[in-house]
Write a structure and sequence with these properties.
The chain contains 18 helices and 22 strands. It is an alpha/beta fold. Strand 15, helix 12 and strand 16 form a beta-alpha-beta unit.
Length: about 475
């Protein structure tokens, strides 16, 4: 596909890198001349300087031949205008980064469809929602929902005192409620688990289970249960503000929320718009301040300052001073592999959330959604099994998919969630939740999606490589 991206900030740049890696033809529009010089060296893409003032810029970028246009500049208004123009010029899918909720919630304004925007994305809003889910579920490091909310994926860190340490997966009791689908090691290794694989201290274990069920596996991994009473948010930017608003809106919310921001002007604005949050004007990296605010009593410390380095530093400080759990915003993929080593409990990458949200635009198959894990090297794929898939009506134990690095963690059939075992079979129209490494996604498409569509997709992919 040909994709045009306007705006080369963190989100735009990382999307461009991922799309280029997937053999898409990418054109980037950016107004900053220094960024253009850097991008030209980083990306195998056409990079054009554009301020957003010329309608002809989209024509110059080849919008009439493009499949997708993504407007990810820092201006909501410019993004909306870009998409409106692109839609007028071509039959194209459009995506706009829109962070101001007024544009999406006000009834007198035109809808996104009327504006010519197929998908509106709010990276900061998505990030705040993900962090809020982790605060609401403090015993897990990650949590995602699938199959109309009937299936959930959770990530758990193996405590050094856990009874599972150095034990093989075969010791786990057979259960119809959960399935261990992946293991991430401290060294960055991804394991598609087999019975003989062992749990090691600080492994991050991914488990698919029926939503709402309590499993004995959690208690085997974790030595104690947690309850959140005190939350401290470091950084009063868009993510920090939106997170505080979400937490304030929880029913039966008895938690204490503190938000720390260095800018006095921002603190006044935050105080005017937050009702149940204590806004504090201070340097987030000031150890004496953190001690004075009883950081050792904080159950969850959230670092969303806008600086990856400061987020990591404050998270480490919080852990050293006694905080129970830390959650960090990370924008640079290079830092992600360090998180487990540094002892950060959970981290959220806005660009990965956006990539997952937009992934369906770039798939020629029946994949419903893709969720990227860690630094994007593993994925959870939700798809509908095609009638003509070669795997229909065959027992899973016969297919030996784990040997190919693919695990079916759950099936939604006629509205019922199933955690499958070896004797289960795949039926047409089953909705499957699959865990795999990212390099196996095309193999998943070939196996489960319509043979005709998958073959066409493969021919397109091979043609791109050949060219």
């Amino acid at each position: 596909m040909k994709v045009i991206i306007a705006g080369a900030g963190d989100i735009g740049t990382e999307l461009a890198k991922r799309l280029i890696a997937d053999n898409h033809d990418v054109v980037v529009l950016e107004k900053d001349s220094e960024k253009i010089s850097s991008l030209s060296n980083q990306l195998d893409a056409m990079v054009l300087q554009e301020t957003g003032e010329r309608i002809s810029a989209l024509v110059d970028a080849g919008v009439e031949e493009a499949d997708v246009f993504i407007a990810a500049t820092d201006s909501d208004e410019l993004n909306i205008m870009f998409c409106m123009i692109a839609k007028k010029l071509a039959n194209i899918k459009t995506v706009a980064r829109v962070r101001n909720q007024e544009y999406t919630s006000h009834k007198i304004l035109p809808t996104s469809e009327q504006l010519g925007i197929d998908i509106m994305i709010d990276p900061e809003g998505l990030t705040a929602l993900e962090i809020a889910k982790l605060i609401k579920n403090p015993d897990v490091n990650e949590i995602e929902y699938f199959a109309e909310g009937k299936i959930e994926l959770i990530a758990l860190r193996v405590d050094r005192e856990s009874e599972l340490v150095n034990q093989p997966l075969t010791i786990l009791p057979v259960s119809s409620d959960y399935f261990v689908v992946g293991i991430f090691r401290e060294n960055g290794e991804i394991i598609i688990p087999k019975g003989e694989d062992k749990f090691l201290p600080n492994d991050t274990v991914y488990v698919i289970k029926k939503t709402g069920t309590l499993t004995e596996f959690s208690s085997m991994v974790r030595s104690e249960k947690k309850r959140v009473k005190n939350v401290m948010i470091l950084g009063g930017g868009k993510i920090g503000f939106k997170l505080a608003k979400i937490l304030e809106g929880y029913k039966k919310n008895s938690m204490t929320i503190k938000l720390v921001e260095k800018s006095a002007q921002k603190c006044h604005i935050l105080s005017d718009h937050l009702n149940k949050t204590l806004v504090l004007n201070a340097d987030v990296a000031d150890i004496n301040f953190l001690k004075d605010e009883n950081i050792e009593c904080v159950d969850v410390l959230v670092s969303v300052t806008g600086s990856d380095e400061l987020n990591i530093l404050t998270s480490i400080l919080g852990k050293k001073l006694g905080t129970s759990k830390t959650i960090v915003e990370i924008n640079k993929p290079d830092y992600e592999i360090l998180m487990q080593t540094l002892g950060v409990d959970s981290y959220i990458s806005p660009w990965l959330l956006v990539a997952g949200r937009l992934s369906q635009l770039f798939r020629k198959s029946s994949i419903i959604s893709e969720t990227f894990l860690k630094d994007g090297r593993a994925e959870i794929i939700e798809l509908a099994a095609a009638d003509d898939s070669s795997l229909i009506n065959k027992q899973l134990k016969v297919l030996r998919l784990s040997a190919q690095g693919i695990i079916i963690g759950a099936i939604l059939r006629n509205g019922k969630a199933i955690i499958p075992r070896g004797n289960d079979v795949i039926l047409p129209k089953d909705r499957l939740i699959i865990f795999t490494r990212s390099e196996n996604v095309k193999q998943v498409e070939r196996l489960f999606c319509a043979c005709r569509t998958a073959k066409k997709h493969q021919e397109i992919h091979e043609g791109m490589i050949a060219n």
